[in-house]
Amino acid sequence: MRQRVLALFFPHLATDRTARRLWGASWRLAGRPDHPPLLCSGRRDSAIRLTALDEVAAVLGLRCGQGLAEARAMHPTIDVVEEDPLADKALLEATADWCDRYTPLVAIDGSDGLFLDITGCTHLFGGEQALLDDILFRLLQMGFKVQGAISASPGLSWAACRFREGGVIAEGAAEEVLGSLPVASLRIDDQTVAALKKLGLKEVGDLLSVPRAPLARRFGGHVLLRLDQALEREEEPISPRRPVAYLSVERRLPEAIQAEDDILGLTARIAASLRPNLEARGAGGRVFELVLFRVDGRVFRVIAGASRPLRDPQKIANLFTERLKAVHDELDAGFGFELLRLNVLHHDSFEEAQGDLVGVSRDGAQLADLIDRVSARLGKGVLRGFQFRESHIPERAVVAKPAISLNSDVKDRRAPAAMTRVERPLRLLPRPELMEAFAATVPDGPPSRFRWRRVLHDVARAEGPERISPEWWLDDAASEERDYFRLEIASGHRFWVYRKGHYQPNYQPTWYMHGMFA
């Protein structure tokens, strides 16, 4: 199947944002109010210049880059607002989120355009022309001036929506469409465009009649690359702004829904559609994303994770029950949601478990369900578990991680053999703390007393030493060996301390507190 790309161009994005704020999102359908021309200004080259203008300002002869003082002298009634590139970028990203209803492969093109890879999905909307008409009309309802074109390459679609009326371009018509367009339609820099014009090469058709080798020597290979991409001779992939889901199911609603119970009920029903596909792949979902498309164009994304692979629709819906409770204040249903989509962002192999005579599985499902509910409601960092590593250094041997992200395989939770042969403290300090040791027997004996956190303790019993050498493949040559001791004081408290380095003439090793046994 040949690639088909839809390019969208927003020529007045900045002023449309201001107009939506002043007159509402549907201002284009209601008609433009009797208002002076809208313009945006910003500092360029130590001067205040025009950075964006609406259709009315363009008709009056104003242009981007013109000085603000000159524009006010020509038309004193213009309405000028300060530019806000961050707000424009946020609006374009929100529009890209809205375009996910057509395809998950959406990429941002500069500061005023979008690319949509619609390969294989146009039949869902009645064909390419019907899809293009639908998206242009919906964006018009949302208050945007937009132009769109569909072709077999991003470069051709980009040129057609910016330098002609757009529309659907059939395969094989690239030369006919590009021939009369200016060379700037090839997405090359202004300096190269100016140099080409000096040679009389003003249109793309002029480049087609010029030998390629001299053109490449004079202007570089990027001109020919852009030309070949626009002519569908070279492939140009689109990098989507969001990762493509492993599996995805959606439900378009004839009537918008608002209630949370309706959302959860529909989530369970569309989750049932995921199960056959997951079973066919021998997988289960670990991270799910519920995407809610509101009727006014706003998109909400709710992500929920599981501590083990899931296929059961009700358990998947239960994850979002807790998540919706956590984000209840942020989820504004407005006039309702018209489209729900459930994505599987991450998956893992699913192992079937045999239940007992009453159908209850003994593989830790209850603990996993508890971890999922608590993590979905309060955040994945609330419950933490421990993952063992193959290392003799104590602070490297165990790593605390969110419980929901730990592998559910029991074998991964076993301690390394090096740790099971020796006793380790119940509590390990985040980092060893310096302490003072007194009357330590030389060269390898434990101290008879020590001071830690300004408290002096007498040692009643001691065990050790246990020598742990630095890992030569991780540590530098200056790292020293550690001699660990288990010390018990008169009150019964037991500590785990170590001596760093060895006794040498004119050198006293340092002692550190690393953990407590009880």
Notable features of this structure?
six-stranded antiparallel beta barrel; 518 residues; 18 helices; five-stranded mixed sheet; elongated; alpha+beta; 20 strands
What does this structure look like?
With 518 residues, the protein is an alpha+beta fold. The chain contains 18 helices and 20 strands. It has helices at residues 13-23, 27-30, 55-59, 68-74, 85-98, 128-141, 154-163, 174-178, 190-198, 204-208, 212-219, 221-230, 260-272, 274-281, 313-326, 365-378, 394-397, 417-420; strands at 5-9, 38-44, 47-53, 79-82, 106-109, 113-117, 147-151, 167-168, 247-257, 283-294, 299-310, 337-349, 384-388, 398-402, 427-438, 449-452, 455-468, 482-489, 494-500, 510-516. Strands 15-16-17-18-19-20 form a 6-stranded antiparallel beta barrel. A hairpin with a 4-residue loop joins strand 10 (283-294) and strand 11 (299-310). The model has no long low-confidence stretch (mean pLDDT 88).
Secondary-structure map with pairings?
Blueprint: E1 5-9, H1 13-23, H2 27-30, E2 38-44, E3 47-53, H3 55-59, H4 68-74, E4 79-82, H5 85-98, E5 106-109, E6 113-117, H6 128-141, E7 147-151, H7 154-163, E8 167-168, H8 174-178, H9 190-198, H10 204-208, H11 212-219, H12 221-230, E9 247-257, H13 260-272, H14 274-281, E10 283-294, E11 299-310, H15 313-326, E12 337-349, H16 365-378, E13 384-388, H17 394-397, E14 398-402, H18 417-420, E15 427-438, E16 449-452, E17 455-468, E18 482-489, E19 494-500, E20 510-516
Parallel strand pairs: 2-4, 7-8
Antiparallel strand pairs: 1-6, 1-7, 2-3, 5-6, 9-12, 10-11, 10-12, 13-14, 15-16, 15-20, 16-17, 17-18, 18-19, 19-20
Helix pairs in contact: 7-12, 11-12, 13-15, 15-16
